[in-house]
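Suppose a colleague, Dr. K., hands you the sequence of a protein chain of 151 amino acids and asks what its three-dimensional shape might be. Before reaching for any lab equipment, you can write down a predicted structure in token form. Begin with the sequence itself:
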Amino acid sequence: MTSTQPAPVERRASSLDKLNTLLETRTETLMLFSQLAGMRPYQPNTELQTILQEFCETLVDYTASAHFQLYRFIEEDAERRTEVRKVAETIYPDIAASTRFILDFNEKYDCEDHCDNLSKLEQDLSKLGEILADRITLEDQVISTFNIQRI
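The predicted structure, expressed as tokens, is then:
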């Protein structure tokens, strides 16, 4: 009799791939955040707008990798480890709340559409930095659970 569920090793490899994607996009986002933070004072110019646009795109990719790869994977019962599921379910509401601010930031500063009013960019980046720090702390709880379970 064949099973429609992937084998445990296959599921673990898939979950680790999703974690790696999350970590890669997170690292890229943080590098661009740091680069952007170093460009103060914020005046509309080509270099700043290019970095800001790249940052917004990477920020959305990072956010999407968490939601549409990792958490969906866990939610659809592809991840069977109880501890991983329990931690993910506990932190997901806070992750979802941080996503709203991230999407609002992207909407406000996506330079493909507009990017001339940067008067609040420093404040918004500061708040975004706090939100990203909290989000990373939450994500690391899930990540550490994966690593503990991965023997």
